[in-house]
């Protein structure tokens, strides 16, 4: 009996905690070395790698940029660490491309609402149809944070620093497209990303 209890405790120690999965189906799409899996914009002045960290920095004209994966995805989870930098940080993760039937998971200050909407869904035709819960207590404005976003069919779920904070269903959502990282136009800002991984479901 004692051996069985010890085995169960060992299993619990290696199980995912607070929504953070750790199995081998996660694949890096940015490992700190290059942007080989991304479509880098021509005349790129926004995206750079320094010390295994992906930096996004606004240009002098503040026209912004989106960094897209070369691959398109259907049902998946994407996870990354992010850290706020200078200025008014307004960024996010595009889930399945950029069109009116897509969700973008916000990171930072919403330009329209003028408040932090991290982990909330933004839809071009709807604005922010839902707001993530408990973010104020979880978000570290000075250090690194981990965000994980999952989309299965029309349903989107987001975890922030290991805690589920948002679940939203978008009717008639676009079901396939690339993942994108946004550097919002009109802002002077920097933001950092690292350990970007995808788990196709």
UniProtKB/TrEMBL annotation:
<dbReference type="Pfam" id="PF06439">
    <property type="entry name" value="3keto-disac_hyd"/>
</dbReference>
<feature type="signal peptide">
    <location>
        <begin position="1"/>
        <end position="19"/>
    </location>
</feature>
<dbReference type="InterPro" id="IPR010496">
    <property type="entry name" value="AL/BT2_dom"/>
</dbReference>
<keyword id="KW-0732">Signal</keyword>
<protein>
    <recommendedName>
        <fullName>3-keto-alpha-glucoside-1,2-lyase/3-keto-2-hydroxy-glucal hydratase domain-containing protein</fullName>
    </recommendedName>
</protein>
<feature type="domain" description="3-keto-alpha-glucoside-1,2-lyase/3-keto-2-hydroxy-glucal hydratase">
    <location>
        <begin position="25"/>
        <end position="198"/>
    </location>
</feature>
């Amino acid at each position: 009996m004692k051996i069985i209890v010890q085995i169960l405790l060992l299993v619990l120690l290696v199980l995912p905690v607070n929504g953070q999965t750790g199995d081998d189906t996660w694949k890096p799409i940015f490992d700190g070395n290059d942007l080989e899996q991304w479509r880098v914009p021509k005349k790129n002045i926004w995206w750079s790698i320094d010390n295994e960290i992906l930096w996004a920095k606004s240009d002098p004209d503040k026209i912004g940029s989106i960094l897209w994966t070369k691959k398109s995805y259907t049902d998946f989870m994407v996870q990354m660490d992010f850290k706020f930098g200078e200025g008014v940080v307004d960024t996010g993760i595009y889930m399945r491309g950029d069109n009116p039937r897509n969700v973008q998971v916000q990171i930072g200050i919403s330009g329209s609402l003028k408040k932090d909407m991290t982990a909330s869904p933004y839809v071009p035709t709807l604005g922010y149809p839902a707001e993530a819960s408990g973010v104020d207590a979880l978000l570290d404005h000075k250090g690194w944070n981990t965000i994980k976003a999952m989309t299965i069919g029309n349903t989107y779920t987001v975890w922030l620093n290991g805690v589920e904070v948002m679940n939203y269903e978008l009717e008639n959502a676009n079901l396939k497209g690339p993942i994108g990282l946004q550097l919002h136009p009109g802002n002077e800002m920097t933001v950092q990303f690292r350990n970007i991984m995808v788990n196709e479901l």
